[in-house]
Amino acid sequence: MRTHRTAALVAAGLAVLALAAPARAQGFKDLEGKVVEKTLPNGLKVILLPRPLAPVTSFVTYADVGGVNEQQNATGLAHIFEHMAFKGTTTIGTKDIAKEEAAMAKEDQAFTVLRAERLRRPKPDPEKLKLDEAAFKKDQEEAQKYSDTGAFDKILEQQGASGLNAFTGFDQTVYHYSLPSNRLELWAALESDRFTHPVLREFYKEKDVIMEEKRMGESRPTMRLFNDFFPVAYSAAMYRSWVIGSMSDLQAITRQQAKDWFSKYYCAKNLTVAIVGDVDPKTAMPVLEKYLDKIPAGAKPEGPITVEPPQRAEKRIIMDDPSQPFLVIGYHRPDINDPDNAAYDVLADVLGGGRSSRLYKALVKEKKVALYAAAMPSFEGEKFPGLFTIMAVANKGKTNAECEAAIYAELDKIQNEPITKDELEGVKARAKMHFIDGIDSNMGLAMQLAMAQNLQGDWRQMFNYLDRIDAVTAQDVTRIAKSAFAKSNRTVGMIETTPAKSEK
């Protein structure tokens, strides 16, 4: 039982958070008036936020495309192109572009022959497959002779770049890094070049890297479970397919497919640039327009049409494995633009947002059935309806069934008893602090501006988040809990521990 002294300390801590958050939030809100935006003639969206705290500027290029845009037989394309975007251009990364392009064309032809044999039904001819693989490897090595590996990265590193990286999600592909503020023109020139004249060199070699990345991921039992969990939870939406793609698709995808992907999704009208730091919009905007307006305008691609139908019955997947037990429960929920999105954030925090959450206290501290318990408001993407997710790791000697029963007991409580005033105030204070901490850096701000612009249709939505959290009531939390936590709306996945083969 909590002592009066502990309760007083917690209350004092929340009071400090409540006082500090508005002060920091006000400074955050002041930034909104400093944002400068412009849509270039080619349709590319530029968002600038001057923040001259240090002579450094952070850059984000957001492509409105991710795993959700993929189709069967070509999963993993979004992630493949992310890797390709660092391979250089017709002038960067090549020793002789004419000879390199000729060699890559021959390499592609050899891969087409090899691919056809691999896909032969009912099965490939082993001897022909061996010959085709040898011919392809020879042409691959010839093309490699003209590649200046890592040239794009080297230029930026020599100019003081930091955090040079990218990521592919279900909803987006994002490229980001920071540079000294006097290198803005360099960034604009390089970014324009790589999205206007990309060369997909070392394509098949990089696919091998990605396939090895997939193998490493699937060496973890939880990753294997999630690979099977998503296609069970979703019957139609492409959130059902893990972003890295299926192994058979990765093996078969051609360079031409990646080129077609680039042509469709990397047009200016599908790109957003967010720049935050030591930048003067008056001098920066003409430079950005000079270079970025060279990217072909294209046409804004149509988004996914398939809508996930309502789930009619509980779904279950059980994976036997010698690893420790693991439990995941997913409930379908609306997308980020739903009026109740902030209420789902509050619900996740109350249930499983840390050591003070209901699930952690009930499963880990009190009943001792779990080593870990948590909840997340969304797991894959946010642009389309997704999953509210609860996870638990059973304690030694305990089972998934015990964890599951304890979780449902807490879900019943939150559906039938409003959360307390202290819980709601504490969650709101933490949500504000976490959100403001997340955008405390230039890169964090740039990332959130780009995310809001693309996921919510307007970068200003980022600045309204704290108001939406403040507006959530205990009644809102009860209402969405009753709506979401229906048995027919859930998918349950678990790893059940079985003896290793050597132990049988």
Please tell me about this protein's structure.
The chain has 504 residues and is an alpha+beta fold. It folds into 2 domains: 203 residues, Metalloenzyme, LuxS/M16 peptidase-like (Cytochrome Bc1 Complex, Chain A, domain 1); 189 residues, Metalloenzyme, LuxS/M16 peptidase-like (Cytochrome Bc1 Complex, Chain A, domain 1, 2-Layer Sandwich). The protein has 18 helices and 11 strands. The strands form 2 sheets. A 6-stranded mixed sheet has the order 1-2-6-3-5-4, sandwiched between helices. Strands 7-11-8-10-9 form a 5-stranded mixed sheet, sandwiched between helices. Strand 4 and strand 5 form a beta hairpin. The protein is globular and about 70 Å long.
What is the rounded Rg?
Answer: 25 Å
CATH superfamily of the largest domain: Metalloenzyme, LuxS/M16 peptidase-like
Sum up the overall morphology in one term.
globular
How far apart are the first and last residues' alpha carbons, in Å?
45 Å
The stretches of 5 or more residues where confidence is low (pLDDT under 50) are 1-26
Beta percentage is: 15-25%
Instruction: Output the helix-strand order.
Output: HEEEHHHHEEHHHHHEHEEHHEEHHHHHE
The level-1 CATH class of the largest domain: Alpha Beta
In the residues, how many domains can be counted? 2
Q: Count every beta strand, where a strand is a DSSP E run of 2 or more residues.
A: 11
The DSSP helix count reads 18
> What is the topology, as strand order, of the major beta sheet?
1-2-6-3-5-4
CATH overall fold name of the largest domain = Cytochrome Bc1 Complex, Chain A, domain 1
Helix content: 40-55%
